[in-house]
Design brief:
The chain is of the alpha/beta class and 1106 residues long. The chain has 46 helices and 20 strands. Helix 4 links the parallel strand 1 and strand 2. The longest helix is centred in the first third of the chain and has 23 residues. The structure holds 2'-deoxycytidine-5'-triphosphate (DCP) and magnesium ion (2 copies). It binds a DNA duplex (12 and 16 nucleotides) through helix 14, helix 15, helix 24 and helix 27. It is an enzyme of class 2 (transferase).
Length: 1106
DNA sequence: ATCCTCCCCTAC
DNA sequence: TAAGGTAGGGGAGGAT
């Protein structure tokens, strides 16, 4: 009721909720008190009424509030009947007939006066907000957080100033509320400017248009000193070299070269001599400078240089690349959030061997091996950034210390981490230093040392991995360990061992929490801190959570906290009183479920490696022919320092990002690429003719192989077994749309602050449709299928069954002790074509182009460029590679055709056909090698221009390609000419079962449909194991071979994919027909010869059957 | 219904 | 001065 969405839908356009983004103060403002109990209490009433009112009166908030509301309404009705003037304009009813107001906050006139007006003029007045009853919210002024809550919970309702009521009364008629809307909401409505229009304008002028609406323009200005305008682009273009450096920084080195480029980091064993210098002026309290494992930023050479180059005075000059060409680089080097944000990639790189192949589907094992209880250990470093820096300064241990860029007591630099003495004063991470100093005037501020954090994090994880092979990294100082394997062993002992090793190795302390699930383990760590450990047995969970503030639950941030607050829910105990369905209605199915579970300490997630997931063994073809199945999207982005349109640079970045993905190329189902935060190009400074971005991009849809031959050779492509630069592949996925974007944008270069991000879609197994009410009985679940699912999916399903899945698996495990994993044979399927999220979710303002699926043709898309008019600070260029992948874990046994999605190597040929040559050309070497590994080993390995060496795959000896070509010449390719094509009439008169079947299939299938479709129908209708003699004569054999060969010739330039499908169908059919086996033996070598000739490699037809 | 797009939210 | 990045989950609502 309270959050009842039955009312008019709010349109995003008319009431945009994007102010967070555009509001520069964002969450930095002190949080205002928000919607009072009036909002929440009623909501509780409504949400609880359904299921809880049966119990004793006032058993919960709900029944109490419901009763209260009822009485209030009755009272209002009584009052109304005595005070109503009844009159008012035409209707004979009051002018406010049908109007029901809720007064929010302080108003003039007061809410009681407004209530009086309502009484008099036929309206209603609600003491508590209810979306089903309230028609207008009356409000004079709203703090930010209330505005947000209004957006969240009262969509579609007018929020109107009280003068609307007064004026209406004065006018004796109901005035339109529109002129009385609250400015805050109205102005935001007007403020919302479509990005497209922004760029449309930009396109015309090709510069930042001074005529842009103030809001947009204003936002840009509001970015303050860091913002840059189009004028800054000029400098970026000529200095592309720096980008490479930056790339190396992020990618190749195992050390983090943050603001301190040369500081040597000691571990605890090293002697305290030779400390990094400390800038004394930064230390407010100690007389002598403590020994810090860090330097201040101002000691940084780079920073100094940047100051030297500073032009005097103007802050924009100093705080932008205008005055300091290294500004952005230095900015990122000093950014803690950048450090944290990019840490995971570095971790993956370093510890990938530890996660090697280990599917932390630990859940699978756990569920099968252990009873429903797992044991989770959570380890988190104590005040990490501070600890590391002061680890060799014992004199600071008991003093309040925080890490911050600035010690300025009036400054707005943010506290990154505060030690526990400082926390006693109320100092917290994220605070402005001035507030921290206000809390604690003698707070010692120490600088960051990112390199040391990196080293300590490595040590930390080395220790964790040593003790456990199921480690889920949360962040650089925090991880979950699944220690269920300990069985009888003592997890607490392991925890203390690990903590001791961490302390010995790093000189910093860590705390640990142990519990039956991730959620509670994390909460336990919080109790344990600092330098302690805590075990929460499951029977204590309930008690502990009861009074825990909801904000303490991971996943509940300020926004959800506010929403819950408006429901008068502050702690977990209160949250538990709201039924699950109500929470799901108010917060959505997933979030609602999470809230319900969390408040009870329930968490069915399992320890797993985020991302490096692989398709399950049992995963099989998508049911849909050529379907992509369900996709999982992965993306990596990189912000580069300076604008560039140099394709070489972009390609280098793409490679690097691909490397980060650490993904089995065979799992890849498509690639997308997004470049954002673009800037205008200075024509005179564009990259070399050959390397310009727009050419690269344009070629994606142009089959411009010459250009990419250039690119390729310039990069020293030495293993070009398959020279993609020579491949005349059809660019399937891209697309006019893409080109349009490029051109509409004017001449764009990635502006500083752009980032580059590959989005990957890779198989994730099928998702079970969210259908909470109709779950199949748990006993009907195929255990083998279940086991083949990725852990998160199991977790999700487990969730849906409220954890009963675990027991179910346990029971099954006991039944089948051998644990042999048979082939997945089930039946139950859901195949979604889902290529969307891969591309869509790029949290900037960029215009997005989708990699579209074209009748199931998927794999690689050409680059997609999108523009970005981000009103936030531009600090780098952003490029994103979007990739789409697909799979399904299901197969349909009666579906005669495999699609390309599933079996490992299936993808490769598809990629070949669908990849635009230019894109594939850009793949990282490892990726290419992977691709080429799918091909027979004897292809040439040494050609820079891969097409130069052609090797014929001689898997079948009974045909000579030359012969074949001669014959082909004779027939002059005419089997495929005409409509219907020649072969139809030719085969029509044949007695051959197969040929006749083809003809029949031709007529049954869509006109102009692909041969693969015809073939599929024809072959699926064939009986098994027909005798060769019955099936066809020599002549028929020849005819059908010709048909295939000619089809190869016809399509090899444009659609390898189609060829691939046909040949796979053919290959599959060979098990049921000797005739077709003969055909296959003849045409397959021909196919490979042609492939070699055209692409310098073979087409792998592996389908799992051979 | 489901997909697609555009966000919002959260965590470190 | 100060360096408010990055990645993923997920909801709302329009399009289909
Ligand atoms: N708003 C934040 C939160 C965290 N961090 C950085 C500094 C922290 O040291 C590190 C780890 O975050 P934690 O949440 O683990 O916080 P601490 O380790 O500092 O303290 P605790 O002892 O509570 O874990 O991330 C940050 O820069 N800004
Ligand atoms: Mg910590
Ligand atoms: Mg942490």
């Amino acid at each position: 009721m309270s959050f009842d969405s039955s009312r008019s839908k709010r349109s995003r356009g008319s009431n945009p909720s994007s102010s967070d983004r555009t509001n520069p103060s964002k969450q930095k403002k002190p949080r205002n008190r928000t919607l009072g109990p009036a909002w929440g209490a009623n909501s509780i009433s409504s949400v609880s009424s359904k299921s809880s009112s049966k119990r004793s009166p006032f058993a919960n908030f709900g029944s109490y509030m419901e009763e209260k509301n009822r009485k209030l309404r009755e009272q209002f009705d009584t009052d109304a009947s005595t005070s109503s003037v009844g009159g008012g304009s035409s209707s004979g009813k009051g002018i406010f007939s049908g109007v029901s107001i809720f007064v929010d906050g302080f108003t003039v006139p007061s809410n009681q006066e407004l209530r009086g007006y309502m009484l008099k003029h036929g309206g209603r007045f609600e003491n508590y907000f209810s979306k089903s009853r309230v028609t207008h919210i009356i409000c004079s002024n709203l703090p930010d957080s209330k505005v947000k809550n209004l957006r969240a919970f009262s969509r579609g309702l007018p929020v109107v100033k009280p003068t609307w009521v007064l004026d209406s009364v004065a006018a004796d008629r109901l005035l339109s509320w529109i002129p009385y809307q609250l400015e805050q909401l109205v102005s935001e409505t007007r403020a919302q400017q479509k990005l497209s229009s922004f760029f449309a304008l930009k396109n015309i002028s090709s510069i930042v248009n001074p005529e842009l609406p103030m809001n947009i323009h204003g936002k840009i200005e509001e970015e303050g000193p860091l913002s840059k305008n189009d004028g800054t682009v000029v400098k970026f273009l000529s200095e592309v070299g720096n980008i490479t450096k930056h790339g190396d920084l992020l990618g190749e080195d195992s050390s983090y070269q943050g603001q301190e480029s040369s500081t040597e980091v000691r571990n605890s064993e090293s002697s305290p001599g030779g400390e990094s210098s400390v800038k004394e002026s930064h230390q407010s309290s100690p007389n002598k400078a403590p020994t810090l494992d860090s330097n201040f930023c101002t000691d940084n050479k780079n920073a100094k240089e940047s100051l030297d180059t500073t032009c005097s005075g103007d802050s924009i000059m100093r705080h932008s690349t205008l005055g300091d060409p290294n500004f952005i680089e230095n900015y990122f080097k000093s950014s803690r959030l950048h450090f944290i944000g990019t840490w995971r990639n570095r971790y993956r790189k370093r510890f990938s061997s530890k996660m090697n192949g280990v599917k932390y589907g630990s859940c699978n094992d756990n569920m099968l091996l252990n009873s429903s209880e797992s044991v989770i250990l959570h380890v988190d470093m104590d005040c990490f950034f501070v600890s590391v820096v002061i680890r060799n300064s014992p004199e600071l241990y008991d003093k309040p210390v925080a890490v911050c860029h600035s010690d300025n007591p009036k400054g707005t630099a943010e506290i990154s981490s505060a030690n526990y003495p400082a926390r006693d004063y109320g100092v917290r991470a994220g605070m402005f230093v001035r507030d921290a100093k206000a809390h604690c005037p003698h707070l010692v501020i120490v600088p960051y040392n990112f390199e040391a954090y990196e080293v300590v994090a490595d040590q930390f994880y080395a220790i964790l991995h040593k003790h456990c092979n199921k480690v889920q990294a949360v962040s650089c100082d925090e991880a979950f360990l699944d220690v269920t394997f300990l069985e009888g062993g003592d997890p607490e002992k392991l925890a203390s061992t690990i903590r001791q090793e961490i302390a010995d190795t790093t000189g910093c302390t860590a705390s640990a929490g142990i519990a039956g699930n991730l959620l509670v383990a994390r909460l336990a760590t919080r109790i344990a801190k600092p330098n302690g450990q805590c075990f929460i047995p499951s029977e204590k969970v309930d008690d502990y959570l009861k009074d825990l503030l909801i904000k303490a639950l991971p996943g509940i941030g300020p926004a959800i906290q506010e929403k819950l607050k408006s429901l008068d829910v502050h702690n977990c105990g209160q949250l538990r009183m709201i039924p699950r369905e109500d929470l799901q209605r108010d917060f959505g199915p997933k979030l609602g479920n999470m809230l319900w579970n969390s408040s009870r300490g329930i968490d069915n997630r399992m320890v797993s490696v985020v991302q490096v997931k692989k398709r399950r063994k049992g995963a099989d073809e998508p049911m849909k022919y050529m379907g992509c199945g369900n996709c999982e999207n992965i993306s990596r982005s990189m912000t580069i320092l300076k604008a560039t349109d140099n394709a070489n640079i972009l390609q280098r970045i793409v490679r690097q990002l691909f490397g980060y993905l650490n993904i089995d190329v065979k799992e890849v189902r498509g690639i997308g690429l997004q470049i954002s935060k673009l800037d205008d190009t200075d024509m005179s400074k564009q990259g070399h003719e050959d390397n310009k971005l727009d050419l690269w991009l344009a070629s994606a849809s142009d089959n411009s192989r010459e250009q990419f031959g250039t690119v390729s050779s310039s990069q020293g492509n030495t293993n070009g077994d398959v020279s993609l630069s020579n491949a005349r592949c059809k660019s399937i996925l891209v697309n006019q749309e893409f080109r349009d974007t490029v051109h509409n944008s004017g001449r764009c270069v990635d502006a500083p602050g752009s980032s580059f991000q590959p989005h990957i879609n890779q198989p994730s197994g099928a998702r079970i449709t969210e259908e909470p009410t109709i779950l199949p009985p748990i006993c009907s679940i195929d255990v083998e299928v279940l086991k083949s699912l990725p852990p998160e999916i199991i977790s999700e399903i487990n969730d849906m069954y409220s954890g009963r899945l675990t027991e179910f698996l346990e029971v099954n495990k006991m039944k089948d002790d051998k644990g042999s994993v048979s082939d997945c044979t089930t039946s139950y399927s859901e195949v979604k074509s889902n290529g969307s999220k891969a591309i869509h979710d790029l949290k900037d303002y960029s215009t997005r182009n989708s990699v579209t699926r074209n009748k199931g043709k998927l794999p690689f898309s050409s680059p997609v460029v999108s523009q970005n008019g981000s009103p936030t600070k531009d600090k780098g260029n952003s490029l994103q590679v979007l990739q789409t992948a697909s799979t399904s874990f299901l197969r349909s046994s009666d579906f005669p055709v495999t699609s390309m999605g599933m079996v490992k190597s299936d993808l490769m040929p598809v990629s070949l056909s669908q990849v635009d040559a230019s894109i594939l050309q850009q793949l990282p070497e490892e990726l290419k090698v992977d691709l080429l590994d799918l091909l027979p080993p004897h292809r040439p390995k040494d050609t820079a221009a891969g097409s130069s060496g052609i090797s014929v795959h001689n898997g079948s000896e009974n045909i000579n390609p030359e012969t074949s070509v001669d014959q082909l010449d004779e027939l002059s390719c005419n089997l495929w000419m005409g409509d219907p094509p020649k072969w139809v009439e030719k085969f029509e008169v044949s007695n051959c079962t197969v040929l006749k079947s083809l003809v029949k299939s031709y007529y049954q299938s869509e006109r102009n449909g692909p041969f693969s479709t015809i073939l599929q129908f024809a072959l699926s209708s064939l009986p098994h194991f027909t005798d060769l003699k019955v099936e066809g004569l020599e002549e028929d054999l020849f005819s059908l071979c010709e048909l295939f060969k000619q089809y190869v010739q016809l399509k090899i330039d444009s659609d390898i994919e189609e060829i691939y499908i046909c040949f796979r169908l053919l290959k599959r059919s060979t098990i049921k027909s000797e005739f077709l086996l003969e055909v296959y033996n003849v045409v397959h070598p021909f196919l490979q010869a042609s492939m070699n000739e055209n692409y310098g490699g073979n087409l792998q037809l592996y389908d799992g059957l051979s």
